[in-house]
Amino acid sequence: MTEEEKNIQKHSFSMEALKNFLRDKFSLDEDKASETEVIENIRKGVDFKGTNLWVLIFATFIASLGLNVNSAAVIIGAMLVSPLMGPIMGIGLSVGINDFELMKRSLRNFGFMVLISIMTSTLYFVISPLSNAQSELLARTTPTTYDVLIAFFGGLAGIVAQSRTDRAYSTVIPGVAIATALMPPLCTAGFGLATLQFKYFAGAFYLFFINTVFIALATYIVVRFLNYPKKVFLDKKRELTVKRYMLIISIATLVPSIFIAYGLVQRSIFETTADKYVANTFKFDKARVIDVKREYRPHGKESYIELILIGEILSDDAIEGAKAQLSNYGLSNTRLIIHQSGEGNTDNLDFKSIQSNYQELLAVKNRRIRELESLISTNDTIPAQKIAQEITALENRNISNITLSRSISYNSQGQAVDTVLVAIMKFEKQETISKADKERIISWLKVRTNTDKVNFYIEN
Predict the structure, then answer these.
(1) Which of 101, 137, 212, 222 fits 159 for a cystine, CB–CB 3.0-4.6 Å?
(2) Can you give the pLDDT at residue 178?
């Protein structure tokens, strides 16, 4: 055997060893439950009656309460309790094993589940005295690309966990229930109906639909990857009919979701690019961007970026230069709208946004004021006239006047660090004072004014 043949054989052996190693590490055969057991377990979770139905109603109330009081912990608890994953996994499984009867049951129970959840949450929000949209509610009204990815990978994790023998003790399925967040969007849809804010209903239901489709898709992919046996029909004609129906239903569900996902990706790309454009282009010494709104409009419509600036008014040339930069960021079909604080036209300014952006600054200033108030309180008022009379009586000197004032010392960053008593003594004629006398006067002033630090000066 030549040296070249030995190298080829050695290389082939190494590649085979690597393949075996990776196959062993990524194999799902270990602790795999039987296909029949997994399919039967998912079938049981499809039906919504008795315990499952009551648990769903209670979970809806819990999630609605959490959204109403803006409590993330309560919402997470509701997602752990909720049995929403059952029919959705049933839909994905039915497509994967070619079971039309399971698909019909899953779709029927899925629709019933959605109806009950929305009715329950609507009822709660109708009778609830709290009608303001909190941040947890608003977060469920606008789906993003990340929601699609979370639903898809969460669905993958969920069906893989379902296919294990230890699924009853696994923490994966509760984690998937939290991550994919199926219950909160349905409750937010109920809030939209109860308060007649249909944009909330549409956005929340849109998010729920996206989550549902991609969890079902993930279930289908894993079922086919694990090579679950497909249902066999004795009547080949019926089998063909069933396959056609399932294909039509699958396409009718999947194709819109792909377009929706594509639109979400395009929106996310636009928003990220717009933020980068604003951060890089609007760098001015005496002007600052305090609020940014960006709106992506698909199908060739003109998107826009709206900015609110404070500080020095930008010149027309500067604004035109900023607009010219749009094409460099791939934002050529985007309109730039700029509002400046000194333009004289404040109709379009969002003062709520301005106030929000400066809340932190105001908090710092208020904290500084409180520090100064604590340093100079009314209890520390210096009886300067009386102290001047006492020093004149104690010191056998020709004192013409004494000045006393309490001041604040600052560090190099401009922060107040201490209080100091400043004492200035002036004699009727030039007179020297010994160091010992000076220290004695300082010690007396510290005790008399209850001050730790005294700066004492002689004015000639």
Answers:
(1) 222
(2) 67
